[in-house]
Amino acid sequence: MNGLMQRLRAGVKQVHGTEAVLAVVVLLVLVYLTIPPLFLMFWKSFVSGISLGTHFSLNGYRSMIENGLSATVVQTLEFALGSTIVTLVIGSIIAWSTIRTDSAMRWLGYVVAFLGFAVPGLVNIIGWIILFGNGSGVGDLWLRHLTGLHLAFNIETLPGMIVMEGLLNVPVVFFLLIGPLRSFNASFEEAAQVHGGRGITVMRKVTIPLLKPVLLSAVILIAIRAIQSFEVPVLLGTPARTSIFTAEIYQSIHSSIIPDYSTAAAFGVVLVAGLIVLLMIETRFTKGTKRFEVISGRGTVDRTTRLGRFRWLPTILNLIILAFFLLPCFYVVLASFQKRIGASIGAGSFTLSNYATLLHTSGFMTAIRDTVEVALLAAIATALLTLLASWVSVRGKGTLARLVNFMANIPLVIPGIVMGFGFLLFYLYSPVPLFGTLLAIGLAFVAMFVPYGIRYVRPALIGISGELEEAARISGASGRHILFKIVLPLVKSSVTGTSLYVFFTSFRELAMASILVTAATPLLSTLLLDQLVNGDLTVVSALGALIFIVSALVGLLAFRFIGFQRVSPVPVPMGDAS
User: Fold this and answer.
1) Do residues 307 and 103 touch, judged by C-beta distance below 8 A?
2) What is the pLDDT of residues 19-55, one digit of tens each?
3) Taking a C-beta distance cutoff of 8 angstroms, is the pair 518, 525 a contact?
4) Is the domain 14-43+354-578 a CATH 1.10.3720.10 member?
5) Beta-ladder partners of 101
6) Which of 42, 160, 395, 506 is the right S-S partner for 155, CB 3.0 to 4.6 Å?
7) What is the pLDDT of residues 299-326, one digit of tens each?
8) Nearest-CA neighbor of 35 among 425, 386, 510, 387?
9) Is 322 exposed, middle or buried (0-12, 13-18, 19+ CB in 10 A)?
10) 60 and 48 Cβ atoms separated by less than 8 Å
């Protein structure tokens, strides 16, 4: 402990006075947002009952084992592995065909990726449930009418969950791969072909080995996202009677009048431990990345693969994925104007009564106000905190700067449902009266989104020479003027992109919100979940249509600021923020 304090003091001495104070303040804020919730969750896993006493017990872990821990582990791994394979295969094909081939309408790859981030995953899933839920949805009836055959596609199964989660994550792999595929020196492939290598052999022996680090990172990232996933396990897995970790945490809290905090905390501890192991595996496999570096320059060969008569196949795949994202959402919008779900389309089948019912739904207007306030709070606070943390970690030196960067990235490996549960315990037992307030929800959102903002703002700061700030400091400028008059204008687009991304992601965030909201502080996402469980599907469609339209509009605004063909247009999320 004394050694750590000495290194901290040394780190403070290595920066200027104002910057040192700022670094300490940023570090304390990050510690407040991450450590207490996680510590209380770990503590609660060993304390039974509602209170936070000191009587230690293993009842939470016993209950977790009795509830079928082995089945939960197996089904979670099956779900994660299956969806990772689906995501990696389809995402890689779309990225490769967009960047490295002459496929027709290659720009569709970018459209698919952007829509994948803009379309709310919650609304997408609800649309598919209405169309193909339990084998007797509207889509099944349409197929039966068109083909005359009894075709039933039930997505409320483990294979359906795997396909759904896998396709929802395709944009993540696309944005991870387009950068390396663009900068890849194709002269190696050219040399291999000159020596007699065929297309498949060259890809297997040259292309894939050189892309091994990014492919391994993509596999680990998608596996972590699948394990952290919330909407698919809860909305599709509960009817399918599957047992996924995130769904088990939610059920432990909501399945009875008296919530089982100890069991939920035990599930959370085991889940976080497993995710940390995955990150350690990724670090081990990718630490030797210098072995995969290539030297390129003016002589780099820009080689495009000719697909010939198969050049339309990637286009067909893009259109299929595009339909996956848009078809259910468009049907949700259509159903929101129908008198009855599945009714034939005609002049007399449309109505506005669903929206009238929605307007009179208890808590609807409050949910709109609360959602906008929380999203604005999270967007502004996250943008400011990530700007400060990125500046401290990039320009600072020593232990203090490294600690700021480390603390800012801790929530990256914590699922939203686990983070939300940690904040629930923190505010429930904290002497500060924040439990059940919008400020508590907003702070929890900030903690969750800070790592994503860091990944977007920090690279922009690294690309700016520190000499500009040194010149301003020599001229007598204070740290505040340097940060807001010099640094901020240079990274304004990154900060704006981060705030817009956080806003429209907060607008439909469900995992964390489902744990923290109360009857006095409803959000649109949790109101949609409640209506799906207890309400009319036509009203659910009206609310889903509203969320979809607002998310799409804000998403278009975000992409307007971020740019259409940037290598990394949005921060790639680890947790489920769809």
Assistant:
1) yes
2) 778 888 999 999 999 998 899 889 888 887 767 766 7
3) no
4) yes
5) 305
6) 160
7) 444 567 777 788 899 899 999 999 999 9
8) 425
9) middle
10) yes
Predicted local distance difference test score (pLDDT) of residue 548: 87
Q: What are the extents of the domains in the chain? A: 14-43+354-578, 73-293+308-335
H-state helical runs in 343-363? 353-359
Positive or negative, the CA dihedral 485, 28, 437, 228 is positive
Burial 33-48 (b: 16+ CB within 10 A, else e): bbebbbebbbebbbbb
* Amino acid at site 322: L
Q: Identical fold at 14-43+354-578 and 73-293+308-335?
A: yes
Q: What tokens were used for 150?
A: 């009894």
How many C-alpha atoms does 191 have within 13 Å on its Cβ side? 9
Q: Which residue has the tokens 């943008």?
A: 383
Burial class, 162, CB count within 10 angstroms (exposed 0-12 / middle 13-18 / buried 19+): buried
Report which of 305, 302, 407, 406 is spatially closest to residue 28, judged by C-alpha positions. Answer: 407
Read off the pLDDT of residues 475-494 as tens digits, 9 standing for 90 and up: 666 666 676 777 777 777 77
What is the predicted pLDDT for the residue at 85?
A: 94
Q: Are 443 and 33 a contacting pair, CB within 8 Å?
A: yes
Q: Encode pLDDT of 121-158 as tens digits.
A: 888 999 898 888 776 677 777 777 777 766 667 888 99
Q: 183 is written with which tokens?
A: 């900068």
Please report which confidence band the pLDDT of residue 78 belongs to, taking 50, 70 and 90 as the band edges.
very high
The first and second tokens of residue 263, run together, are 């069991």
| Residue 413 in tokens | 């490996």
Q: What is the rounded CA–CA span in Å between residue 523 and residue 370?
A: 6
Q: How many Å separate Cα 422 from the centre of its chain?
A: 18
Pick from 556, 453, 464, 463: nearest CA to 496:
453
**Whole-Å CA distances, 252 to 268, 320, 505:** 11, 37, 26
